[in-house]
């Protein structure tokens, strides 16, 4: 059978489970900061792979996912303007432009509620990273943006944790 050798995956997962608990928390914390993965990947990983207490997986993922928010809000526009000056970054800037512009009208119309809802729905391309990018591009106030993204991330983390605990993961 082609593809991934499952015995390797099982061996790798087993070796990770045997690591000290602090490594589990660190791994889940770091995974929750990665764009597109965020809490959608880190919470199930913490519960299913590491056997973490669901509340601890929720808490570590929630806190980790918030780390990029203030950085994005404070730095994105300046970095983006600099990147757009260079042809090398043009494909990335175009991609980002399309992503942000696609979701901006919903948030512009409903402002804070739109941002909370957008971040709070745990679907691909929603979340802390995209919500923070949109807030930065739209020029929403820093304090309100952090609050809305935090509230949305809290909602998302609760939804994901409840789904993983009740429905399961990788059934």
Please state the average pLDDT score: 87
What is the makeup of the main sheet?
Answer: none
The radius of gyration over CA amounts to 18 Å
> Structural class of the secondary elements?
mainly alpha
Helix content: over 70%
Describe this structure in words.
The protein has 171 residues and is mainly alpha-helical. It contains 8 helices and no strands. The protein has helices at 6-17, 21-31, 38-49, 54-66, 68-84, 90-120, 128-138, 142-166. The mean pLDDT is 87.
What's the topology here?
Blueprint: H1 6-17, H2 21-31, H3 38-49, H4 54-66, H5 68-84, H6 90-120, H7 128-138, H8 142-166
Helix pairs in contact: 2-3, 2-4, 3-4, 3-8, 4-8, 5-7, 5-8, 6-7, 6-8, 7-8
In short:
The chain is mainly α and 171 residues long.
Index terms:
171 residues; 77% helix; 8 helices
């Amino acid at each position: 059978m082609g593809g991934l050798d499952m015995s390797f995956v099982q061996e790798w997962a087993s070796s990770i489970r045997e690591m000290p608990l602090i490594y589990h928390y660190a791994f889940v914390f770091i995974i929750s900061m990665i764009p597109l993965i965020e809490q959608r990947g880190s919470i199930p990983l913490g519960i299913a792979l590491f056997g973490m207490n669901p509340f601890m997986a929720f808490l570590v993922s929630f806190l980790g996912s918030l780390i990029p928010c203030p950085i994005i809000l404070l730095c994105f526009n300046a970095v983006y303007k600099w990147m757009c000056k260079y042809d090398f970054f043009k494909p990335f800037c175009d991609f980002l432009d399309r992503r942000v512009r696609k979701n901006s009208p919903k948030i512009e119309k409903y402002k804070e509620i739109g941002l909370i809802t957008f971040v709070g729905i745990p679907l691909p391309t929603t979340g802390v990273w995209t919500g923070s990018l949109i807030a930065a591009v739209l020029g929403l106030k820093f304090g309100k943006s952090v609050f809305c993204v935090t509230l949305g991330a809290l909602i998302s983390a609760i939804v994901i944790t409840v789904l993983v605990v009740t429905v399961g993961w990788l059934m």
